[in-house]
Amino acid sequence: MTARVHVLTCGYVGDRVAGTVTLIQDGDLVAVVDPGMVADRRLILDPVAELGLGVEDVTDVVFSHHHPDHTLNAALFPSARFHDHWAIYSGDRWESRDAEGFALSPSVRLTKTPGHTGEDITTLAETDDGLVAATHVWWTAEGPEEDPLAEDMTALRASRERLLALRPSLIIPGHGAPFPLDG
Known about the structure:
By secondary structure, the chain is an alpha+beta fold. It has a single domain, classed as Ribonuclease Z/Hydroxyacylglutathione hydrolase-like (Metallo-beta-lactamase, Chain A), CATH 3.60.15. It contains three helices and 15 strands. A seven-stranded mixed sheet has the order 1-4-5-6-7-8-9, with helices on one face. The chain has a six-stranded mixed sheet with strand order 10-11-12-13-14-15, with no helix packed on it.
């Protein structure tokens, strides 16, 4: 079995900002990636319900990094475990672990992709259509080429190269619609 990936809402950046929010299913895993800022929480909750799921069905939440535009709505999922670059959080438990290569399920894993922040991670999902990467190493398909908020542009370029070497079929950027890679 491979994972199924659903973009719940596409983000944007301009005079207002919203993060792209993704749901990934793989066996017992129901993970939401980057439940951050959106114009209305229904933009997250309604697509979850359309998939036949409730907030209590979400088992895991992944933060690509700790900016509010990617984390603000995490509390919508009270039963979930929360993942970041160095730990898993559940209730009052903090389980330290390195995100690099950590498997959430047989088809879903995390990888470190620093640059935008030093603590960025990408969620990788093996699907029937190929590898999907939910990541903030790209804001949108259109750019910006140079991340104006990057803590380390050299590390960001290296993270992009590392992800491209994995040959993902689809990139889900931090603030835009999913896009396929050319070629």
